[in-house]
Fold this protein.
Amino acid sequence: MNLFLDTSVLLAASGSARGASRAVFHFATEASWTLMSSPYVLDEVVRNLSKLPLAATHKWVRLRRRLVIVDDVVSADQAVVFAASKDRPVLLTALASSDALLTLDRQDFAKFLGSQFYGLRVRLPFEFLHEERAEGRLKIS
């Protein structure tokens, strides 16, 4: 399964060893998930890393190696009404490349959280992990 990780998830995973964002990285290999992101998101991560402790930058360097980077997509062949223009490339790139978009951005993605956007699951990381476990696709001990 292809999972697109937005800036908020990548920063959370870099900044804390606990929590669902880091757990996504932990379970990815065992669950056969491909973790994806894009240059647009990576630029946002780099711009915001300085807001976190220095250790987050070191962790980011290691986590970054586990990502598959896909090209940014800025337009779609479907009708898209999405007011948050800064996050439009995130949504469209995830739609073009992934099965699910994982985000912690409850403001800009509020309309889609817990539902779908043209078949793309949009979830908070802990919701995604919970769903995968409930469906028997993820073994958490």
Remarks:
- The two ends are 21 Å apart (CA to CA).
- The mean pLDDT is 90.
- The longest helix spans residues 20-31.
- Residues 30 and 137 are 10 Å apart (CA to CA).
